[in-house]
Amino acid sequence: MTYYQKLTAHFAKLDRFNHLAAVCGWDQATMMPTGGNQARGEAMAELALHIHQLRTAPQLADWLSEAKEETLSIIEAANLREMTRSWQQATVIPDDLVQAKSLAGSRCEHAWRTQRANNDWQGFSTHFAEVVSLSQQEAQIRAQANNCSAYDAMLDLYEPGVDSAQLDGLFGDMKTWLTPLTQQIIEKQQSEQFIQPSGLFAVEQQQALGKYAMALLGFDFNHGRLDISSHPFCGGTPSDVRITTRYDESDFVQSLMGIIHETGHARYEQGLPKSLAGQPAGFARSMGLHESQSLFFEMQLGRSDAFISALTANIQRVFPHIDKAMLSEQNLLKLYTRVQPGFIRVDADEVTYPAHVMLRYEIERDLMNQKISYRDVPDLWQHKMQAYLGVDTAGNFKDGCMQDIHWTDGSFGYFPSYTLGAMYAAQFMAAIKSVIDVNQCIQTGDLAAIFAWLESHIWQKGSIMTTAELIKHATGESLNVEHFRLHLQSRYL
Amino acid sequence: MTYYQKLTAHFAKLDRFNHLAAVCGWDQATMMPTGGNQARGEAMAELALHIHQLRTAPQLADWLSEAKEETLSIIEAANLREMTRSWQQATVIPDDLVQAKSLAGSRCEHAWRTQRANNDWQGFSTHFAEVVSLSQQEAQIRAQANNCSAYDAMLDLYEPGVDSAQLDGLFGDMKTWLTPLTQQIIEKQQSEQFIQPSGLFAVEQQQALGKYAMALLGFDFNHGRLDISSHPFCGGTPSDVRITTRYDESDFVQSLMGIIHETGHARYEQGLPKSLAGQPAGFARSMGLHESQSLFFEMQLGRSDAFISALTANIQRVFPHIDKAMLSEQNLLKLYTRVQPGFIRVDADEVTYPAHVMLRYEIERDLMNQKISYRDVPDLWQHKMQAYLGVDTAGNFKDGCMQDIHWTDGSFGYFPSYTLGAMYAAQFMAAIKSVIDVNQCIQTGDLAAIFAWLESHIWQKGSIMTTAELIKHATGESLNVEHFRLHLQSRYL
Ligand SMILES: [Zn+2]
Ligand SMILES: [Zn+2]
Question: What ipTM was predicted for this assembly?
Answer without folding.
Answer: 0.94
